[in-house]
Amino acid sequence: MSSILINALLSSCHDPDTLFNTLCWPTDSWPDTERVEALTTFIDGIGKLPQSDTSDDGDKVAFSIAKRDIFLRKVESIIWTQCLPLLLKVSNGDGACRGKRVPDGRAEITIAVCRLLSVCINTLCDTAVSGRVARAVLPSFQLPDGETEEELPGQGEGRLGIDVAIEAMSVILPALSSNEELTTSILSSALSCIKTLPDALVSKITVRLIFTLLNCYSEDGIASKLRFILEDLCNWHKSDSPNTDSPVVTERALLCLTTLSDYLFSPAKLQQHTLSQSLSYTRPDPRRSLQFWRILQDGLTHKDNVSRKRALYLLKRCVALSEDEAVEFPSSSVSSEDNDEIIFRWAPDRCKLLREFWEDYALVMETLEENQIHVVRPVLNRIHTLIQTAANDSQGVSLFHPSWLLGVYQRMFHSENKSVMREGVDHLLELQVLRRPAFALAFSQFILGPFMDVMSESSLFHRTAGQSVGECPELGVKLQVFMVTFFSSLPQENRGPVLLQLVQRLGSQHWCAVPILFLSRALSHLPPCPLLGPDGLQALREVLRCTMITHQVLLRGAAQCFLLNSALSLTDVTLVTLDDVFSLLVHFRADESLRRGTPLWNQLCDWLADSEGSFRPCVRESADGTSTSPERETVRGYVQHQMELFLRVPASTDQTDSVPDPGEAELLAKAILLCVDIEGRTQRSGGQQTTGVSGGMDSLLRPLLDTLSRLHTNVYLPLRKTDKSLQLLLRLLQLTPARHTSAAVLQLTPARHTPAAVEKEQEDSVTVSMETLVLGVVEPIQEFILRRLSGELQELCDVERAELYLSVLKEAVLMYSVLEWNHSKVQEAYFPRLLRYVLRTLEADQIPSVAGQVSRAVAMASLAMTCEVAALGVFNLQSETTILLVHLSSYFYSPAPPPAPPLSLVNFNQTLLKPPTAAQSTDVSEQGPLLKDWGRMAAHFIRDQWTCLGYGRRVGPPGPLELPRASGSLQAAIEALSLLPSGLVLPVLDFMASMLPQVALSEEALCVEAVTVSWKLVLGLSSNPHDFWPTLQGFVTMAFHHSLLELTEEQAPGLTVTLQQIAVELMELSQAKTGVFNVLIQHCCHTWLPSDPGSEGQSQSDAMFSSALLHLDILAEACVYGPVFRRDQRLIQEVQVYVERLGEECAANTAVPSDNRDDQFPRVCVVAFLSRLQPSNQLHERLMEELVLCLLKKDEAISKSKQRYYSNSLQHRVKNRVWQTLLMLLPKLRGKFVGTVLGRVFEAGFVSNQASVKYLIEWKMVLILVQYPEHIDRLWACFSVDQEKTKTSVCTFLSVLVHLNIIMPQLKEKAVQWRKALDVILQWCFSHNFSVRLYALLALKRVWGLEGARAEAEEGAGGADGLGGLATVVKACLHQAEAMQSTGNASKNWTRIQDHFFFGVFHPVRDYSVETIFYTFPSLSEVFEDEWIPPWKFEKLVDFSQSASLPLRNPVPDLSQIQPGDWIQQDKGDQDGEERWAEVQKKMTPWRLGIQEQEPELGLVPQQRAARLGKLHSALLVVASLIDKPTNLGG
Prior knowledge:
Elements: H1 3-12, H2 16-23, H3 33-47, H4 65-94, H5 104-124, H6 127-137, H7 162-172, H8 180-196, H9 199-215, H10 219-240, H11 246-259, H12 261-264, H13 268-274, H14 290-300, H15 305-325, H16 351-367, H17 373-376, H18 380-392, H19 403-413, H20 418-429, H21 437-455, H22 474-489, H23 492-508, H24 513-524, H25 534-547, H26 553-570, H27 578-585, H28 599-611, E1 620-621, E2 627-628, H29 635-647, H30 663-685, H31 692-709, H32 719-735, H33 742-748, H34 756-759, H35 765-775, H36 778-792, H37 797-815, H38 820-843, H39 850-871, H40 880-886, H41 889-892, H42 924-955, H43 963-979, H44 986-999, H45 1004-1020, H46 1025-1039, H47 1042-1045, H48 1053-1070, H49 1076-1088, H50 1098-1110, H51 1112-1119, H52 1127-1141, H53 1148-1151, H54 1161-1171, H55 1178-1201, H56 1210-1225, H57 1231-1245, H58 1251-1267, H59 1272-1278, H60 1283-1286, H61 1290-1298, H62 1300-1303, H63 1310-1324, H64 1330-1356, H65 1366-1379, H66 1385-1395, H67 1410-1420, H68 1431-1436, H69 1491-1494, H70 1501-1509, H71 1526-1529
Antiparallel strand pairs: 1-2
Helix pairs in contact: 3-5, 4-5, 4-7, 5-7, 6-7, 7-9, 8-9, 8-10, 9-11, 10-11, 11-14, 11-15, 14-15, 15-16, 16-18, 19-20, 19-21, 21-23, 22-24, 23-25, 24-26, 25-27, 28-30, 29-30, 29-31, 30-31, 30-32, 31-35, 32-37, 36-37, 36-38, 36-39, 37-39, 38-39, 38-40, 39-42, 42-44, 43-44, 43-45, 44-45, ...
């Protein structure tokens, strides 16, 4: 509204107050926006009127002083009665207080009211009023008491919504510039809101409040407020750096700094023009703040890409400002103590170097925002440039802080693309600059942090191209070299702390098996140095106890070996005690790594011997309570003291205690054996006899032997002492297995490697001494155990104690069964007495009390242990123990009491009567321990019954049970499967294996139920490897019993269909779980063709073998088996192969039993099975022929369903496996049968196949024609097929003719057949297809070389066999072929096809072997390496039968020594390293002036490409760049 209109309105209005009141609105109403705007205009116009003493001023309206005072009072009232209440209404009504944007209509009213408020404040020109208004709005920015930071300020009665408060405060601020205290308070509140408000409001506060505030000040005020803001943001970031909210703090700080960047980084030239020199540097310089650079570096590696852009933008502004100022930064006045804290430096005299460094740095960081590896890889050379620049900067203080380089690696480590991540890891591992101590120290925390985080990624450890299965992954090799370099470069005083932190990282987070294996391997190769103290050994214990507990057994064992090697070479023995050492050693399991007799055990013995006397002495407490410390700590002294402590128990120990923790016994047993072995090795190294070993062990074990000798006679011996002494004895016996059991144990659990040291372990002096010493106390031990088992164990805790007694008794009986006097006493006195007590207890009426039920549980466990010992053949058949066990079935099959049916088998699946709890209490806390122990005891009670039943079936009366009893027993076994935990069902499956054949024909439905229920149980265990594999083995033995395999569909249709279905499901399960099919095929092959037939007659062997014909699908599936596993599964398998290849070097290969879960094992097993078949046996002959037909059908099915398939696809692999099997079976097939399938072999040649399949088919054709030359005419017929149908497949038959020199000696009418070959080859020499012509010319050259000279001589002599004009044509073709030597790619292809292995070194007859078929050919045919089956697998894993017709290994090494290659591959050539990436996109830095300055090589690359491609090029260059502006990055 113009001033003229205002004057007119006031002059015509006699009472302006009335007009003023008319424009106002009632406080309880909601005005229109137009009314608010009208009032705003009115007040603004009135306020601009001149002031006079009178009203008479011509045509102009003027205010008298009195009227102006009245007007100003009304204006002030407008603020308090109109503006603020209306803003409060807007806040309460539109949800702004909850952080929501004001709706459009309310946004308009908010803007209008804020403008009115601004006009009122400007009209009043009273700082006191504006101050009061600001103080009224200010609480809206603050959190009230009791409000959390998750809520928003501005909530509550009387407070404006934060959105409205921002708008209101922004119009108040210009009037407050003189009130320093209030503006500082407002600024503090705004910064507090920045820390708590949602992202959408943070930018608004920054722009509307902070910008407004800064614009109201002079330069001095701006500098003061900027300093306040910068300090607040830096302090906030510093205080929150250790917290999890640090990324949020960094993000907010970067947003504010980017928004204020134009204030913080004003160009130096602009300042000089606008300000005096004295004021040009008053603004704070963020570059001088260390925390500012911390914010930038955190931002460069932030997970949010916008924050990364903001940080990089700020960095560019800092660099640009430094370059414009052209002054040294920081100044030389900075003290030397602060030099280490300076992250950014600038030197004008090195401006070019600095500018190039930071531009390259920005280019790298921008490029790393991309995820495509082809975009990132070209700038990796820039990282080299950065590092070299930083490393070469050695003039005085370094200009480039290493922390900037760490940001580059961290960005690569956090990339979403695993290839970029891998490139970053590889680049860091090859970083040569880490050889410098300063850089190594600067990188140390990064290595312990982000680098260790990225190393936990298992996928990084996949082998690279060119590496074979079983090699150490390239990353593992680089990691080893890197660790050695890194730790060797660290300053000596920092190595120990850094290593300790690294080991602690291994134990403080989740690690997969593969990364921790190779990290442990790298640590084991560090140079010996005393770095680890007690804290280090404690950290290693955490790694062993927590990190690796769920890893695969073999990989866990290998990692344990590496970690123990690391501990031996890196422990500072002067800082640790022997107690620390043995507390660590107890976590290295004997069945996984630290097995006695292995090189690792011997290495440990040598280390302890060398370090003896250097360990820090332990503080020992004697019996009288005094503490002593020996001057020189020895292993023997430590063991003797530990033995004393171990056997020292309070005399008043309760007789109902639970069994002590076996960990103490494990530690002491390992220490005793190490001590004895150390002394024995010391004696041997000194040339002494080892006779002193017996005396040394006697003195160590004497306290234990004294205690054991008094077990039977001293009834007052504390129970805890007897338990601990028996625990120690048990572990000693288990760690030094008895000599007579070693062969059986090794046969049952074959290790991957059995070195000579382990084989001699059973015969060494320590084992002999142990047996001799224990023999002196074995009788009182047996007497004591028999007494305790015969009625003294009556508490729930005694059930576990009974397990200890039975384990000791079993070990003792097995150890001394070779001693006649002890053996006789055991089987004629001890066990008969025990068995009589057991039977009396089991046959007595049950008493529902704890004592009565515990007695029954102990009795059944004793009976089960006796059966297990008897099953090992320890007892004589005529002994009283065996006689009692033979009559065991009379107890279980005893008739039921009269109310029950006579054949109810009441003693099957007996359960314990649960005793009532205290007053039938329902309190769970009272029942808990009883219920827990009771369930375990009841389950073992049922399990023990089936152990006894299984033994009874093996040694009981010969012949089958009566049908009702047999079916009842099987039904009871099915019920037991539902009663028992999955881990305890093995005895039930063992029993079912003996019962199923008896009832298969009469009770087929029951058998189907038994097999189905068992299979479901196995499937339920698939996620529990500890129980799955033994249960699967038991199930396969039961369900695929030879008697069941012999059943035909006519005899048992339901059962045979069920078995076939389960076999299919088992094969499907094996596709996801390696090793499942191995169990089935190994069992079937052993069943059908045992390695040791034994006493079975030929008729019985044939009967068992005939069942293979009924299950041909299992054999056929094994021939083509090979699942395509996920990459993580394949990685685990390949690393396991690597560990196995280490052999005796890794003790885990000796300690961990072989599991035969190799995914190639089914093929290896079936090939070994087929190699043992005899063509003279009609059943064998029939099986082979049916298998050949089945495999040909599989090949044809794939060819029909998949006309084209990719190399190394599943179809390719299956076809390759089919023809490998067909090829190895060829020598065993009848000639007549070969003639019937030859046509199908030729038909396969016409199909488009991958190279590896094509070579096998061609090889088979050649061998058939060599063995059966009468079929040569069928080969000529293949060339008569229509050329349009054959196309390039005729190359297969031309390849056969290349080897005509092998076939010719077997042919009749050689000249005639040679002439036919010449005729068919010549017609293909003129094919329009280049590949066909090439194959034909090669065949022509080879065939002509056979008889060409002879034929020409005969023609010259006028013989009848002259060639006519053919000789001229042939010579012309061959001349043309040789002339191709100078015509580019044609010459290369002609050379390559002649040098190709199939046409060069390979000899179809001489090279016929399993090695060539399954290993050499796949490796030369570009088949993936997981398809190669090395010959050692046939030697080690199976019983392979070699023969003259099918040798295992190739007689000559020529074929295995050549490199793989295919003549048809494209010319790869050698590309220059820089030119390799000439065709990928490159990012351009927009601030560079010229293209040549940016990339000098870009001027050359297009010309090079054009010259190479033979094309013209135009100098077209497309450049695209995102524009970074603070308005964008600042939100």
